[in-house]
Design brief:
The structure is a single chain. This protein is an alpha+beta fold. Helix content is about 20%, strand content about 30%. It is built from two helices and 13 strands; from the N terminus they run ββαββββββαβββββ. It has helices at about 35-50, 110-125, and strands spanning about 20, 25-30, 55-60, 65, 80-85, 90, 95, 100-105, 130-135, 140-145, 150-155, 160, 170. The strands form four sheets. A six-stranded mixed β-sheet has the order 3-5-8-9-10-11, with helices on both faces.
C-alpha cells in the first residue's frame, strides 16, 4: 500500500507555493521565465563541472538557505538560484545553515528583492561573494565582501567573468539566449 494521500484536485494548487522569509516578512516567489531558466541551467552545469572533485559543492533552487543561522536566526530563509557549500557541517537534509561563500541570483520580475532586500541580508550574513545576473540589460554584478562592505565589479555577458572567491572559476554567459 502506498503512503501517498488522496488529493482532491480543486483543493490543491498545481504548483507548490514557494516563499522566502526575511526578518519576519514573507515574500511569495513567482516561477522563473524561460530566459532565467536557460541561464540557470547553464550556470549550474558550469559550477557543477568546476567543483567536481573539490571540497565545495553547488546547490540550486529550490533549496533552503538560512544565512543568519550563525547569529541564531533560523526563521530567515531564502532560496537563492545557486549557492556554493564548503562547510559540510552546516549542510542538513532540509537546508544550509549559515552564510555560504558564494550566492548567485538571476534577476526576474522582482528585481528590487534581489538587488536590495537580499543584498542587505547577504551583507549582514557575511556572504563573501554575491553574483547578480541581469538578463534584461545583459550585465553581471559581482559583489565581493571585504572590510565590512561589498566591493562592486560590473561585467557584460561577453566578458570573461572571474569569481573573486574561487580562483580559476569564471562565469561564462556568452551563450545565446532563447529570446
Amino acid at each position: 500500500m502506498s503512503d501517498a494521500a488522496l488529493i482532491i484536485e480543486e483543493d490543491t494548487p498545481l504548483v507548490e507555493e514557494r516563499i522566502e522569509r526575511i526578518y519576519g516578512t514573507v515574500y511569495a516567489m513567482s516561477s522563473p521565465n524561460a530566459v532565467h531558466q536557460h541561464i540557470f541551467i547553464k550556470l549550474a552545469h558550469q559550477l557543477d563541472s568546476f567543483f567536481d572533485g573539490k571540497p565545495c559543492t553547488p546547490y540550486a533552487a529550490p533549496f533552503d538557505l538560512y544565512p543568519l543561522a550563525n547569529a541564531g536566526d533560523t526563521e530567515t530563509v531564502v532560496q537563492p538560484d545557486i549557492f556554493v557549500v564548503c562547510d559540510k557541517e552546516r549542510l542538513k537534509i532540509d537546508g544550509y545553515y549559515g552564510p555560504p561563500p558564494l550566492v548567485i541570483e538571476i534577476l526576474s520580475q522582482n528585481r528590487s528583492h534581489d538587488l536590495v532586500t537580499k543584498l542587505n541580508l547577504y551583507h549582514q550574513a557575511g556572504v563573501e561573494e554575491y553574483v547578480v545576473i541581469d538578463p534584461l540589460d545583459k550585465i553581471v554584478m559581482v559583489l565581493t565582501y571585504g572590510e565590512g562592505a561589498y566591493r562592486y565589479n560590473a561585467y557584460s555577458f561577453s566578458d570573461k567573468i572571474p569569481s573573486h572567491r574561487f580562483e580559476g572559476l569564471f562565469f561564462d554567459l556568452s551563450f545565446p539566449l532563447p529570446f
